Amino acid sequence: MDLLVGQLFTGLSTGSILLLAALGLSLTFGQMGVINMAHGEFIMAGCYTAYVVQQVVGDAGASLLIALPIGFLVGGVMGLVLEALLIRRLYHRPLDTLLVTFGVGLILQQVARDVFGAPAVNVSVPEALRGGVDLLGVTVPKTRLFIMALAIVAVTAVTLVLRFTPAGRRIRAVVGNRDLAETAGISSRTVDAGTFFIGSGLAGVAGVALTLIGSTSPTTGQSYLVDAFLVVVAGGLGRIKGAVVAAVALGALQAVFETYSTASLAKVGVFIVIVVFLQLRPQGLFTLRTRSLA
Amino acid sequence: MPLRLKPKARDLARTFAATAAIAGLVATAACGSRAGEETAATESCVDTSGDTIKVGSLNSLSGTMAISETTVRDAIALAVKEINAAGGVQGKEVEIVAEDGASEPTVFAEKAEKLIREDCVAAVFGGWTSASRKAMLPVFEDNDSLLYYPVQYEGLEASENIFYTGATTNQQIIPALDYLAETGVKSIYLVGSDYVFPRTANAIINAYAEAHGIEVLGEDYVTLGSTEFSTIINQVKSADADAVFNTLNGDSNVAFFREYANVGLTAEDMPVMSVSIAEEEVGGIGVENIEGQLAAWNYYQTVDSPANTTFVEAFKAEYGADRVTSDPMEAAYNSVYLWAATVEKAGSFAVEDVQANADGVSFDSPEGTVVIDGDNHHVTKTARIGEISADGLLYTVWESDGPIEPDPFLEGYDWAADLAVTE
């Protein structure tokens, strides 16, 4: 019974990790419809940002706090450059975007391999986040609580920005109806670049946080990419709310399946559920009603 | 319509003709190689007339395995350099032809063929993953050439054309279990990556546990590279086993050991025995997360023997003081010396002479004396359990009473009878 209660927390924490990895993607893929296969590599860039900052700063706790905003900037700037150089030219060719960004991802992996070497590097966990907290008889690692908190902060921040700032309003306007937004004087190019900056920056933040639990190696991003896409697709394109619900649901499913079988079988189970779900509801959990004619 | 059919029919006929021709060629080639097997020694293109003799070094110099396999290449090159400095083999200088296996089994097979047929090497050293070995095996058998394979593996194989200088299961996994049983472990939990080595290893562990009264409390696999361990760790923790047997590979170890330490599990109350963590991996996991945990190998850089001191010093002098030596590197280094010693004993580079004279050939290696078993082409090896220490190196805490005879099919173990038949 203890185990089942523990699995509840596990589901939540797995969900928050998924959410953190998928949040940026729900902006770039969900809102803009750009299939960015290099999203995983932006996460990886965040991981290495945490590593580099820790090498410079030394203290693990301080470096984590410093690395979070820097990770956002690193991911964001990489996203901006990618958008300006390649994606902007391919907005109406989704398949080409997929291939090009996949190639960019491979290049970034190789760059990481050349700069940092192929074996995983170690990012130390701050003393304050080591060990676990006993909740209802199960030990929940503090690192996972931190990631949960960070996911909540990130979702809240994105929601507030989208809802209450002029920039957020412009983003929603372009997603709703690009032509009409342009007619109203909104530069959709600037908005696209901005959205991509925020989405990629969130990937960088996710990368910094994920060094607390996973490894930091050139292929790190790959392991999160598929799950992140699943969350966005299952949640429904264009809705942050969908990503949140889908991430938690997938996390819980994985945790429950895993209790009664093995980890790799649980993964299969989750995939089957998603396939069946998308058959019944191809648009995902939540849909965005747009006034676009397309 | 008929007009259109005609060229189509002609195309068809042409395709048939081409297919038939190719089939014919393949058949001839197949016959050729079959006939060649019987007279391989005379057909071999190895040139023994000059002052030099060529050997192949086939390792992944690019791709994901490059990080591991380049270290093996360095060890092979060091052994060749030392042998040449001591007068070569049969008075001939050994010349290395290096090829890149590119972490792809198919490339390994292709390059092995090239080394044998075009470069006419007397023997090839290298390979790492079981997939690369399985891909090269038919090439070496068909061309009747020699491969020296330096990595511990899942056993259940013995080719006439391969010499296995890494550990088979009874020289690594079984001693590790013996050690755990000796220290009073009554229950274990198995965690591994989902591919052939962990699955085979755990089949052996289950059979061993059943025969020795050890309870297996759980067996979990994660996909290669997975970093999600919270459920498994929860289960491991609530199972409260005496020890964990870890066959995870690569990056997964990082997430596993961090989570393990985070929920408060320690080496004192539930030690983890790992079979894929060597000096190289400890850095990435973070020594604070893994200090005190156990590993099972045959060699550590810290092994205390004159031969090892010489080896480590020579290696650092050649490649830099910051480099570490590991088990597969040492096995690769040994393999070159074993080949040279066999050739000297046979007085010939010919494959059949090397095979005929291999039995009993020995080398005073860094891990201790290793001796080739002529029947299964493996070598005797000393098993060592190492403890990971704060400096990132592994120190021997237990070693077997002398070298263990190789038994790739586990024929000497009653409890493993069912396992051996499966192959």
Task: Describe this entry's structure for a reader.
- The complex is a heterodimer of chains A (294) and B (423).
- With 294 residues, chain A is mainly α.
- Chain A has a single domain, classed as ABC transporter involved in vitamin B12 uptake, BtuC (Orthogonal Bundle), CATH 1.10.3470.
- Chain A has eleven helices and two strands, in the order H-H-H-H-E-E-H-H-H-H-H-H-H.
- In chain A, strands 1-2 form a two-stranded antiparallel ribbon.
- With 423 residues, chain B is α/β, with parallel strands linked by helices.
- In chain B, strands 7-6-8-9-10-13-14 form a seven-stranded mixed beta sheet, sandwiched between helices. A five-stranded parallel beta sheet of chain B has the order 2-1-3-4-5, sandwiched between helices. In chain B, strands 11-12 form a two-stranded antiparallel ribbon.
- In chain B, strand 8, helix 9 and strand 9 form a beta-alpha-beta unit.
- The chains are: A mainly alpha (294), B alpha/beta (423).
- At the A-B interface, helix 1, strand 2, helix 5, helix 9 and helix 10 of A face strand 7, helix 8, helix 9 and helix 10 of B.
